[in-house]
């Protein structure tokens, strides 16, 4: 019995229905006609011929398609006259179709047995759903529009760390408020408008000691995560912002290295990490902020770095621009409360827009994948149910043929085993087809999620140099 399936074939097969289907009733009628002619010929024989030796019997043959040898042929093979889940071998119509089958010679060869088995199969061959529908669905482009998640990806988080310069120069006033007061208000408002799914953290530096040389060591060592990376809490962040005031020196380089450790648990492969550094001055603690920025960029957290200079002169501004470039990030200089607030509002709007888009696209992709998997299993179960039904009808029909004296017991057993092997390979082919389609679905899912994430990463809070 030929194999129904090879792994390579399932990738490339195209299920195409034949232009027409053979009428099973015509086949049954032809078998009836042959049997009637045979009886009439026997009745017309002269009496003298009855005593002579019988001529050699012609080989048994019914004009019927061979049994399918692969899944494509299963789909295109004509549906049987008795292809119904309610069909029973004892049904009158089924028995009539079996009655007209001429007796098989005791010496019938394997070809004749296969032909009889093919005829019985043709009576009950079920209607199989075409897998091409699912194959087409797996190839539907799920590329997301850029206008407008595997288990590890479902655990992805959006993390924002704000680094705030609390050196003595932040005491400078703009209008009626100090730069520190303006920054604190802007940070509180910014954090409150981030997506609900986001975590936020706040690190400050230079908030101890004074700007004197005597306090330099203490002030340069002052680098503290006052609000650890966690979901936003209005009261919690407000309390953290109230713990410090502008005081000493500017250990900018060390703050970047510390931020790398703050976010170390959130690997960039599966998490989105964004750092905002707000400073009104350059490094004053003998660190190398450009080197620290390069280290941050090369780290596993893969952060997006946005540096906001607060009322900087052109000379000091250059260092922060160099730091931003080394980190692969962006730089913007703001002069007052409204500009700082506007920059944070823009960042928040971008984060919300793309986080919403990202979650929506991921959800739609997972929904499609679940739908595709459901369709694959539905198809597989439908095919297997057809196999079980066909096998039952074919094998019990062979038993009925033996009871009617149409075939010998040995012939029944041989065809029974032929049918058993046929349906065993048929079943294995369906199982392999299912697994191949599931693998294709998984590959399509992973590709779609990767593309969604790439677009998201390219667009979430990219910032522009102004």
UniProtKB/TrEMBL annotation:
Segments for region (Disordered): 38-63
Protein name, as recorded: VWA domain-containing protein
Entry superkingdom: Bacteria
PROSITE patterns the record matches: PROKAR_LIPOPROTEIN (PS51257), VWFA (PS50234)
Every VWFA domain range: 159-347
Species of the source: Cytobacillus praedii
Annotated keywords: Signal
SUPFAM superfamilies: vWA-like
Keyword presence, Signal: yes
Signal peptide residue numbers: 1-19
């Amino acid at each position: 019995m030929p194999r129904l399936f090879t792994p390579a074939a399932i990738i490339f097969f195209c299920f195409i229905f034949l232009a027409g289907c053979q009428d099973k009733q015509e086949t049954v009628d032809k078998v009836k006609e042959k049997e009637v002619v045979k009886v009439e010929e026997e009745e017309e024989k002269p009496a003298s011929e009855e005593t002579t030796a019988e001529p050699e019997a012609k080989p048994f043959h019914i004009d019927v398609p061979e049994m399918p040898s692969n899944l494509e042929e299963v789909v295109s093979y004509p549906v049987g006259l008795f292809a119904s889940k309610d069909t029973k071998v004892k049904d009158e119509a089924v028995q009539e179709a079996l009655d007209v089958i001429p007796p098989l010679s005791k010496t019938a060869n394997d070809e004749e047995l296969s032909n009889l088995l093919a005829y019985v199969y043709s009576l009950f061959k079920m209607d199989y759903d075409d897998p091409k529908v699912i194959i087409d669905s797996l190839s539907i482009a799920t590329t997301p529009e850029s206008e407008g998640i595997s288990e590890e990806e479902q655990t992805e988080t959006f993390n924002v760390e704000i680094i705030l310069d609390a050196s003595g120069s932040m005491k400078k006033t703009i209008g009626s408020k100090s730069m520190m007061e303006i920054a604190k208000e802007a940070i509180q408002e910014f954090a409150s408008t981030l997506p609900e799914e986001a975590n936020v953290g706040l690190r400050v530096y230079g908030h101890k000691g004074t700007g004197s040389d005597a306090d330099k060591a203490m002030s340069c060592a002052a680098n503290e995560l006052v609000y650890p990376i966690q979901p936003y809490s209005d009261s919690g962040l407000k309390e953290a912002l109230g713990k410090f005031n502008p005081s000493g020196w500017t250990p900018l380089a060390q703050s970047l290295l510390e931020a790398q450790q703050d976010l170390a648990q959130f690997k960039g492969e599966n998490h989105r990490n964004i750092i905002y550094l707000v400073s009104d001055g350059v490094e004053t603690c003998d660190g190398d902020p450009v080197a620290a920025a390069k280290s941050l960029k090369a780290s596993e957290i893969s952060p997006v770095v946005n540096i906001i200079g607060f009322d900087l002169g052109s000379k000091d501004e250059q260092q922060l621009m160099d730091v931003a470039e080394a980190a692969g990030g962006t730089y913007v200089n703001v002069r007052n409360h409204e500009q700082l607030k506007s920059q944070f509002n823009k960042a928040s709007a971008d984060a919300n827009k793309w986080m919403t888009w990202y979650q929506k696209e991921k959800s739609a992709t997972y929904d499609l994948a679940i739908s595709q998997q459901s369709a694959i299993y539905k198809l597989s179960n439908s095919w297997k149910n057809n196999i079980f039904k066909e096998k039952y009808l074919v094998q019990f029909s062979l038993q009925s043929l033996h009871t009617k004296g149409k075939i010998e017991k040995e012939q029944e057993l041989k065809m029974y085993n032929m049918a058993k092997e046929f349906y065993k390979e048929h079943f294995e082919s369906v199982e392999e087809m299912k697994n191949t389609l599931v693998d294709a679905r998984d590959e399509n899912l992973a590709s779609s999620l990767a593309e969604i994430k790439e677009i998201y990463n390219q667009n979430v809070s990219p910032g522009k140099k102004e």
